[in-house]
Amino acid sequence: MILSFLQHQWKAFWRSKNTGKSIAVRVVMAFLLLYLFANVLVVAYFLDEILDELFPLERIVDAFNGVILYYFLFDLLMRFQLQELPTLSVRPYLTLRVTRNQIVNYLSISSLWTGFNLAPVMLTLPFLFKQVLPYHGVGIFWGYLLAIIGLTLFNHFFSLWFKRKVNLNSWFLLAFVGVVAGLGLLDFHWHVISISYVSKLLFNHLYQQPVLAIIPLFMAIVIFFINYKFLKNNLYLDELRSDHSGEKTSTDISFFNRFGIAGELAATELKLILRNKRPSSSLKICGIMMFYGLLFYTNPVYAASFGWKIFAAMFMTGIFIINYGQFMFSWQASHFDGIMAHKIKALDFFKSKLILFYTFSSITYILTIPYVYFGWKVLLVQSVMVLWNLGVNTTIVLYFATRNYRRIDLTKGASFNWEGVGASQWILSIPLFTLPFVVYAPFGLLGQPMAGILCIGFIGLAGMITRNFWLNLLVKEFSEKRYLIAEGFRNE
């Protein structure tokens, strides 16, 4: 049955109207992956020398043991952001003599073909051949190799299971971000724990008793069955989203009801974000960007500069506006004609976008308040930049949205996906990233950085106060361009 599924996927690919574009993208991706794997092999061959340079006082095997857990934690973060969920249009099969077990088996097996599963083996196998097999024997060599394979498979199936859980409930994402942030602070900032020490402790035991490699393999088997059971019980969209209890779902947020039609549109778009791969990645990036301050506020060089504080705060408080807003209104390309046919005022349509922008920027601002630990100036800059994002960047993003005619397939993932990217996105980045520095630069050169910061905040606040004026201009612009936008979405 798996071969039949593969044949169906193959035929669906070649019969798609976007086959030419898909082939071109896959060819480019193939060359990129070959280049990345070539770099991995080079690093793998010289890994023992690299470790010897970084940890000259330790044995090479001990240094290797100390970085294994760091690698797999980083691997898990990268998988969560970049690894795609295996897909199959299961609805046509549900009325045929195809069992759910067969469908789940296909999804589980087909998901294994990913570069993330090849990279750990490619990276460590040359090291094991050079440093472990000649000096420590075949048993320890196989112990390390099986442990690495077990951890790789554990990360693989855990990331698939966790991403599906996040698609159902975004609180899992916040919990994940909190755990990662906590581990990072406890290890690198407060030095309460040491992941390197734990890694050495575990793998030194493996070095002495290679049979312990069965533990990572057992963990991989357990998470495989957990993912298998979850996928089988939630096989298709209706089961994932249905609510038979008669109670409100998590996306029926009463908070939006107070804004009338605009609030209903915002709530509907929030459901679109949560239920589809490509837009939901914007929320994941919001969570990841919460750690951006750790790169700047903990570095004395960056921490002493208001310019770097502006840069970090702009991204942390406005990443949803920047990342999600750059593809406005492409997210709704598939039903844009329906929006135009309904009795929806353009003003309410634009207000719904502002409601989403204001909501997510306020949330990210609140979540970044703890950065006041690095000084009250950090909180001041973040407060100023959230005003700038809400008062200025929202208007810029919505203006460029009236010149975006490229549609987006919501079901595709965001990783290495260039669909919807055009000239408007590149041009949009210029005012978004440069305008606050244009305002701040004269004051910075005159030695009055605080005045520059306050000026940025004043302009942002003025933009929020005069919001209705800018909305009316945007509605007028949209009214002139809406038929061109709709035509562009249809022709893609």
Automatic annotation (TrEMBL):
Decide whether keyword Cytoplasm is in the record.
no
Q: What Pfam families is this protein classified in? A: DUF5687
Q: Does the keyword Transmembrane helix apply?
A: yes
> Where exactly are the transmembrane stretches of this chain?
23-47, 63-82, 103-129, 141-162, 171-191, 211-231, 281-298, 310-333, 354-373, 379-402, 423-443, 449-475
Which key words tag this protein in UniProt? Membrane, Transmembrane, Transmembrane helix
Q: Which InterPro entries match?
A: DUF5687 (IPR043742)
Instruction: Give the protein's recorded name.
Output: Uncharacterized protein
- What is the species of this protein? Arcticibacter svalbardensis MN12-7
